[in-house]
Queue: 2 jobs
Job 1
Amino acid sequence: MKIIVDSKENIAARVSSMISGYVAEKPAASIAFTAGDTMHGIYAELANENADFSECEAFNVCEYVGLDADNEKSCAYQLNNELYSKLGITKIHAPSEAEPESYDAEIEACGGLDLVLLGIGLNGHIGFNEPATLYDSYTHTAQLTDSTKRMKAAHFGGEDKVPSHAVTMGLKTICSANNVILVAFGAEKADIVHKLVYGKTSTYVPAAMLQMHMNMTLCLDEEAAAKLN
Ligand code: GLP
């Protein structure tokens, strides 16, 4: 695992140029993008890059069950609004509530994922793969934990307003990608980042599975990296 520690602003710029670098090398790259607060600065940087993303196949990592793409709380809304519309990405794929299992075939049909961009939940979730998700899981519907609902309470205007379920790429889907970039910012992520890097690879910390990925880059600000040494 490669670990990069820098200021939040510099990480945003560096991750943005890593992604545009992949696309410069492979214009029709299949890239999975995550929603969440961590991504705002990265997507703002990407929107300013002069790269051509028109051939890129974009895959949304996850979505709340019951939220359409025009609902501003949805992952699709953030990705469309901050990223796809700005970069001229039109080949957009999203997991379907009705048929989650078809998503992996859709990814395969595009040649598999070249890159997945991830954030991390306070309990170690990636996408919405909550603790105790099976390592060999493909895209599926997941019940959100109380920890995740608390973490997303501000976004939804109250913990009770957070959807109970989400559809998400599975751990196998994510780990099958050729490259993984995971970004974490802020002191509140420092404990889980420590577990990601040094913890046992247990299903109780889904992100720790990424220790075994051959091309995993962990991008942290100083606060999120504070417990690594
Ligand atoms: C959510 C999303 C993740 C996201 C993570 C971190 O639950 N499903 O994909 O990466 O939480 O969110 P944030 O960036 O807002 O801290």
Job 2
Amino acid sequence: MTSDPGERRTVRLGVLLSGRGSNFQAIYQAIQSGQIPQAEIGVVISSRRSAEGLAFAESHGLHSRSVSAKAYPDRDAYDKVVLSHLQEAGVDLVILAGYMRLLTPVLLVPYENRILNIHPSLLPAYGGVGMTGLNVHEAVIAAGETESGCTVHLVTETVDGGPILGQARVPVAPGDTPQTLAARVLVQEHRLYPQVIASMIQTYCQSQAV
Ligand code: GRF
């Protein structure tokens, strides 16, 4: 966290992503428009060099890094490199935005209660290992649910099991495909994630106040 004259504090976000990065873009726009005040993006880290989200970060002049798993012997070694990038950038809060890797205690311990994720279902339903991407929406439709949505939660060692910070609901329409349902949920993701981040930043600033 940095302070500028006039005591205004800026909270640094570290965004971890692996793909499209549409949630990251929604967060970026929300910072630009002032919907998420007191925040700046310290670093964007992608687990894939070809991620669209990484290209967006680069083209918008954001500090970014690509960290390929192939270069490291195990998950701990990988997370140590990610941690060093986050710490070098002075990151206060970590935002997972379509990050396709499970975090180890190497990251979970130093950033305990400071890592957020968004999941495209109403957790605790349709979460856990293997519940990613269209699998989630396929399962929701197959179960005959009439409602789905998305959840922002704190990240803990239990996959998709950390404390829930916010949810948004959408109807499941008759005739929905995983793709149509995913698109409806995604609209809400882009609305919910910036809202929750803004309120998390407020809480964070209050907890850091001296
Ligand atoms: C979103 O559906 C999010 O809920 C999940 O992964 C997807 C990422 O999409 N964790 P994008 O990369 O933000 O467009």
